[in-house]
Design a protein that fits this description.
With about 190 residues, the protein is an alpha+beta fold. It is built from five helices and eight strands; from the N terminus they run H-H-E-E-H-E-E-H-E-E-E-E-H. A hairpin with a 2-residue loop joins strand 3 and strand 4.
């Protein structure tokens, strides 16, 4: 097995373990209490998740020789994303964390559906503003392009994000060069409605 593939598999295993632990419910809360807590949190953050998460279905099963694995979707995905952000996450209609693995590479894809294209665009711009305000490596976020696609890029993290219609896509490549990331981003963009 090549070193790059070993590294990718190790990273994938770590992420799966982390995600599995993050998706578990707290044992001290009853299902009724947890439901009440989730409803009040969602109302406060204006999040209205659909009961059946389907946003991951928009992405193809295979891209660039890599196979799709849906790590988290719906409420567990939203809770995971909330833990990795400082600011509020608002207006989310559906969300999924998807991994593509193959060719000694991996791409982590966060796909978020908002109620409208305007909200998706506003939330994307708020994320840029929040990153700049937070500082550290995040303040270097800048606008770049992949062909005609406007993309935001965080150089210190090698992460990319963009929106199309009512969807925002966040890409975290592992062992992929910029031209492969560009090809991947353009393919994702082309399959979104």
């Amino acid at each position: 097995m090549k070193n790059g593939m070993k590294k990718g598999l190790i990273i994938l295993l770590i992420l799966v373990c982390l995600l599995a632990g993050c998706a578990q419910k707290s044992p001290q809360k009853s299902p009724q209490n947890l439901s009440t807590v989730n409803q009040s949190v969602n109302r406060a953050n204006r999040v209205n998740l659909s009961a059946n998460s389907t946003v991951a279905d928009l992405l193809p099963d295979n891209m660039m020789g890599m196979h799709k694995f849906v790590a988290l979707k719906g409420k567990p995905a939203l809770e995971f994303v909330k833990r990795s952000h400082r600011g509020p996450i608002k207006y989310v209609k559906d969300i999924a964390l998807v991994h593509y693995l193959g060719n000694d590479s991996m791409m982590l894809v966060w796909i978020t559906e908002y109620p409208s294209a305007k909200i998706a665009e506003n939330q994307t711009l708020l994320m840029v503003k929040g990153m700049k305000k937070f500082g550290s490596v995040w303040e270097s976020v800048n606008e770049t392009s992949f062909g005609n696609l406007k993309v935001y890029y965080v150089p210190g993290k090698d992460q990319y994000f963009f929106c199309k219609g009512k969807y925002m896509i966040y890409l975290i490549p592992v062992n992929m060069n910029r031209s492969a990331v560009e090809k991947f981003a353009l393919k994702v963009y082309s399959v979104l409605p």
